[in-house]
Amino acid sequence: MKPPPFEYGVAESVGEAVALLQRYDGEARVLAGGQSLVPLLNMRLARPAALIDLNRVRELDFVRASGNTITIGAMTRQRSVERSPDVQRQNALLHAATQNIGHPQIRNRGTMGGSLAHAHPASEYQAAAVALDARFTLAGPSGTRSVDAAEFFVTYLTTAIEPDEVLTEIAWPALSPGAGWSLIEVARRHGDFALAGVAATLTPDARGRCAEARIALFGVGPTALRARGAERTLTGAALEGGVFDEAAVSAEREIDEPPSDVHASGEYRRHLVGVLTRRALREAAARAGVATSTGVA
Amino acid sequence: MSEAMAARRTVSVTVNGVAHERVIDARLTLVDFLRGELGMTGTHVGCEHGLCGACTVLLDGQAVRSCILLAVQADGAAITTVEGLATGGQLHPIQEAFMEAHGLQCGFCTPGFLMAVTELLEGTPDPTEDEIRDVLGGNLCRCTGYEAILASVKLAAAKLRALRGTVAGDG
Questions:
Q1: Which residue range forms the structural domain that includes residue B32?
Q2: Does residue B170 sit within a domain?
Q3: Where residue B137 sits, what CATH number does that domain have?
Q4: Which of A29, A46, B44, B144 could form a disulfide with B54 if both were Cys (CB 3.0 to 4.6 A apart)?
Q5: Where a domain ends, among B63, B84, B105?
Q6: B65 part of contact set with chain A, CB < 8 Å
């Protein structure tokens, strides 16, 4: 058998899961869709004393749209998110992020909460959450607390979830009215982990100037990160070729040394950040209905 | 809690319409359960970490990787494996199509492809090429170069549509 031995139990509610986590005092892990955790078990990179299965916790499987926010239960399958008309209507960036996760066979089983809690730096959900300032609700022994994306992702594979807490839901602000968006990544094959990627939204004002820019870079550091300098460059500027080049140069300079590995050198990843930022901004501007005639891809 | 925490559990599943119950280690993956406990070796085990898709089965009608699903998690579920496609010695139209359009060479990856395609054509009888490619992207084949597999899926879709048309016409 591939995985190391562990005790296994099925939680029927969030309260039960939290009580079990407390009982194992940091030695247990919750099991969501298992699309990241079970490979780690198979390779024996994870050796928890116990797994607490959340797959029968019905209260965590929902997509709820209200006003300017879509709240999604942590155990909602990525396939359900992908097919949700509310998500498609209110948050095209989140829909695109979902479609870029693995393959349909992975999304049938994988959950939104599981992906976010795994916190892989090349995760499309992490990039979308950082770009849009999603909020995370965590349930623990003394009740629930809410943290924002900047606080939630601590570093590579590490989040703000305490050992006796469960991620229960994620609140996604809708894209601003009139906003354009883009999610672009480079991977050797579709469905592979991105070597580098960019999630961006641009909101133009009535005169075609940038009222708000949001840019998240992913796969190039311990967590997805906002390119704040590039966002400042764009804000207030006319949305056309020259400013996209400036923002791309800025994004390239804002990241620390990206990881070098067998898949790509750090230098290549940094180069991709510039290219992809420029392309993402042009695409977002086009989707926002702003003509972008100048500049090169 | 439905049951207390334990390293061994009883699992009841229906595989291709037949009910099975076993007491197993919680760490047993579904593919090892199918092959080792039930002796159903049609489901192949390739990479064992969710990448290659050779182990794809249907779990309550949805294509999933059985190497990264614990067998205990399938408790109460209906599973379809490649052994469940043919009926009474008659190949399933998808299997026929793969044979006729040369959608396999060594055959190692084929059970996974067949199950992924089964789910696709169940929900999307007339898929676009992009929709087919999206699903095939989840399975690795190291022999065929995929073009013949793509042709097989198109042929399978046509066969199934023709069959459904006949059934509807008869009704």
A1: 3-84
A2: no
A3: 1.10.150.120
A4: B44
A5: B84
A6: yes
**ipTM value of the model?**
0.93
Q: Half-sphere exposure of residue B62, counting CA atoms within 13 Å on the CB side?
A: 18
Paired strand residues for A145: A138
B9 contacts A191? CB cut-off 8 A: no
Is B2's pLDDT higher than 70?
no
Task: In whole angstroms, give the CA distance from residue A290 to residue A175.
Answer: 16
- Phi/psi of residue B20, each to 5°? -135, 145
> CA-to-CA distance for B167 and A176, rounded, in angstroms?
49
Q: Is B25 on the interface with A (CB under 8 A)?
A: yes
Average pLDDT rounded to a whole number, residues B124-134: 96
Q: Are A69 and A94 in contact (CB under 8 A)?
A: no
**Chain A contact set for B138 (CB, 8 A):** 102-106, 191
Q: What ranges make up the beta strands (E) of chain A?
A: 7-10, 28-31, 50-53, 63-66, 69-73, 135-140, 143-148, 153-155, 158-159, 166-173, 180-186, 196-204, 210-218, 225-226
What does the block give as tokens for B39? Answer: 């002796």
Residue B152: inside a domain = yes
Average pLDDT over every residue of A147-157? 97
**Interface contact flag, A9 B5, Cβ < 8 Å:** yes
Confidence band for A32, pLDDT divided at 50, 70 and 90: very high
How many angstroms separate the CA of residue B126 from the nearest CA in chain A? 17
The answer to whether residues A104 and A68 touch, using CB atoms and an 8 Å cutoff, is no
